[in-house]
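Revision sheet: structure tokens.
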Amino acid sequence: MNQPPAGADPAQTPAQRKGSLRGPIALLVIAALVVAAVLLAPRVDPRGGGEPIPAGIEPEQGTPSLPDPAEEGVEADTEEELVATVLRYEMESVVLGQAAVDLPITSECAPSSETVYECTVTLDDQPVRSTIEVEDIDTMRLSSGGMVLSDRTSFSYTVLEQETVVTAHAVHLQVQQMVQDSQERDTPLSDPRCDEDLPDIQVVADGERASGTCYVTPNGWRGWPNWSQTVVIDGHSVGPSVWKD
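Predicted:
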């Protein structure tokens, strides 16, 4: 006659003893699956594409096509020409700041009404347009003995509408800065990358989405499963804006 194993409850049948083992075995299986998920999840990254951003890139200071009117003055026959020249320099400086890279640049501005000017800055053959309202024009001209002692015109302006330039170089800089700023947070980022076909230069309206996507990898337990996060790009008046989607 078979005897029950030592320590077993003699009142339990073999089937009952077998059933009592299912709970611990199930827990062990679940624990093994959890451990496997923790170890394997970071390696199964659904957004693991993109090309690494070059290390050590720096912003470049572009040069407007005309001298700074505040330093060199403006030679103009009319008030409209003077205002247009100042606006050209201002808008070229803005576009070069957005681009963060030195590229060929030209511009033209012309009035469409008494107070509104239409400007087009052409950066590396890409036109970037803006509509500007000019206000509070103040012209002062002092002369004595046939000599002009002071000839000054000042005005303020408001950009009503504008397009912005987004360069791959500026985007790379912004994503690198995002990674750098995250290092003191609970979920530091690493491995900045962008689409291989991210356009070298594109023009979008202020605040609108630009083409292309970048990626960063969150680290630490707060970022589990540590899959890459997408970074979207918007045009902005001071340069491209990047943020995690």
